[in-house]
Amino acid sequence: MPRRGWPSHVFFFCFLVCSVATGIAQRSQIELTVIDENGMPVPDAQVILAEPGLAPLRLTTDYAGRCQYSIHGNTPYELDIGKAGFYQTLAHEVDPLQQKVELSLAHQQMVQQQVNVVASSAGIDPEQSSDLNNMSTAEIVSIPYQTSRDIRNLLPFNPGVIQDQTGQVHVAGSATSATLDLLDGFDIRSPVSGDLDLRVSADAVRSIDVEKTRYPVEYGKAAGGVIAFRTGMGDDRFRFNATDFFPSFREVNGGLHFDKFVPRVTVSGPIAQNKAWFFDGFETEYDNTIIAGLPSNADSNQLWRGSNLIKAQVNVTPSDIVIGGLLFDDFHSPYEGLSTLTPQESTVNQDILAWFPYLREQHSFTGGALLDLGVGGVRIRNGAEPHGDTPFEVTPEIYQGSFFENATSPSRRVQGTATLYLPPREWLGRHDLKFGIDLDQINFGEELTRSPISYLRQDGTLLRISTFPAQAPFNRNNFEAGAYAQDRWLPHAGLLLETGLRFDWDEIIRRPLYSPRVAAVYTPGVNTKLSAGIGLYYEHTQLPYLEEALAGVRYDTYYALDGITPVTPPLMSNFVANDGLLHEPRTLNWSVGFEQKLPAEIYASVNFLDKRDTDDFVYALQSTPPAFYGTYLLNNSRTENYHSVDVNLRHNFAHGYVLFGSYTRSYAHTNAALEYIPTLSILGPQASGPLPWDVPNRFFSWGWLPVPKLKSWDFVYTADWRTGFPFTSVDANQQVVGEPGSRRFPDFLSLSPGLEWRFHLRGYYFGLRGVIENITDRQNPAVVYNVIDSPLYGTFSVPEGRAVTARIRLISSK
């Protein structure tokens, strides 16, 4: 916890830096501005200045895409500018008398279309304080991740990111809701659950940034990390791309069956040359999920979803740029949750409709300051309806009957942001100052009905029945406000200090929260980098816990061995939350990183991270053991600890080919491993154990390489191995047996190689790819029978199986 008095000291420091720096005269220097093809500033671009007879000077652009330098003579000089995800720009014979230079970096497209255009390669960024891992267009297009092309399936190929059986991702050992998911700078998490539920076409995504630690104070209300998606924009050329004309097939029950069909189309181009552009990315998906082990006439779920992102940018003036977008998602799954444990009759018919409109304006002032304003809103309607009205039963093996809950859950978040970037100031070095605020209004509600749940013994007799009182529809609001100040100080070349302070408040917890963060980067040479940092990170108010209290009453009646005679009256369990007693969960996060460029264009990095979460939400039973009923009070007694070491190697080949490998050793544990909920809840005394996504060991690799002697052919692959997830054993009453998470799934292993052939046909450029996913046919089960009363206890089901996928991409015209 920060010492009392830190906030005032930090604010005074920022004020002093700003005030003193403003009054100091600037030396006469040349100002370079780097913009993209649409006139947007490009921050963190690497600039190499080469004057005849002098050693090259290395610079980095600031928040507004600017940097300043002086030259030593009147001889024309050269500028070499690059950034991962962009094509390299070389400026020869730059006029030494020119006081302002503006150069453009063009984003990489889906294919390099001119032989004299060179893509920038990823290297060591001396002014990147966080442990940023960037995936640009090349990785998004080339890495052969799963057939569905759900962009979430690409995220686990970043160090420290794990994907669970539901498809949600966990960054640095944190819950999904603890990660801040951004789309073009806006929070796109589900307003209530915090899950990454919005989908966007993989072809619409231009880059993905993943940050686990040392991320700056502009990212608030998230202690688990940041995943930032940046989508494309048109330019002055009309472009049409399409992907996946072929369905994929998966090996199930000894045969090859239709699996998925995921066509995608993107269209972009100018609205007005050099002034306005548009972009549209459309995607639809049809899945045929077959579950081995279920009856042949009831073993499949045919779901479909669609999404469309449409954007436009207008450069109203050279100083005013306006960008607007609308993302629309539609999802329908008639048998959602189908598995060997949940037959069709016990699943739900799920429909999800989501909208996300947003608007952003950037205004550049004559003095060099930049103001970024944004407003957006996420609206989600989630409906889940059971099949029929037969009694719902929980047996030691499977669920039976119609699901017990019928629910409709609307939610929305309206958010506004404002960020002011000041021009660089000189005072004992260069200072890049940034100030910002963000506001969020969240509303959520639910309309639900619940029928009884019967728990059966192995012989089929009734052990327990849970009933729920009628629940009136409810609605709740939360307002969040945040503000921050940040200074990036370069006292001299090779040393960067980044300090920041963030303030947060919301109307539920109603406590002021101050988050100081400090990071430092030392680069003794162009091939070596040391990074370190420590910071306090507060979590947003976890609304699912409060939602459970709004419909949190359950009555349990136990029965004798005959399954007919009650042995207890209805025993009430009541889930209660008192906002005034709660604190916001917080994390103390410190880390150290080392990067080194090795011979043969190999980049190596080693990173250590330690996170200690305290005051996490958890429901605690107030009754004395061995009682399993009574009042469950929401409090802040949970703690979580995560630490990891990862080692990464990346080899950049000529013509953009890449090999990447990563190994992570980690530990993710909590003192409260049991999650009590009002409905289908585990029973038993609270205990410590691993988090459900704890993976002590993981290695993965991906890459693409040219095929010798076969022009226009590439070899692509992914390889992934990790320790299996933990699971908890229970009895027929859902009471924990043994220690939580004491058993694990088998180790996960998947190897997916493929070939891609690029060719021209009738004036168009195509890419044809075939991949064998999980070529070894490793089972990699997703479900375990964890009830010790069942003869199936400890057996696994729903294997991944081998899949054959093919895609053809209409990349562009010649």
What structural class do the secondary elements suggest?
Answer: mainly beta
Number of helices: 3
User: Roughly how many Å apart are the termini?
Assistant: 59 Å
Report the strand count: 50
Helical fraction equals under 10%
Radius of gyration (Å)? 28 Å
Shape, please?
A: globular
Largest sheet, strands/sense/barrel: 32 strands, mixed
Let me know the average pLDDT: 91
Amount of beta strand? over 45%
Q: Spans of 5+ residues with little confidence (pLDDT < 50)?
A: 1-27, 112-116
Q: What are the main properties of this structure?
A:
814 residues; 5-stranded mixed sheet; 50 strands; 4% helix; globular
Give structural notes:
The strands form seven sheets. This protein has a 32-stranded mixed β-sheet that branches. A five-stranded mixed β-sheet has the order 8-13-14-11-12. It has a four-stranded antiparallel β-sheet with strand order 3-2-5-6, with no helix packed on it. It contains three helices and 50 strands. The relative contact order is 0.11. Strand 37 and strand 38 form a beta hairpin. It is mainly beta.
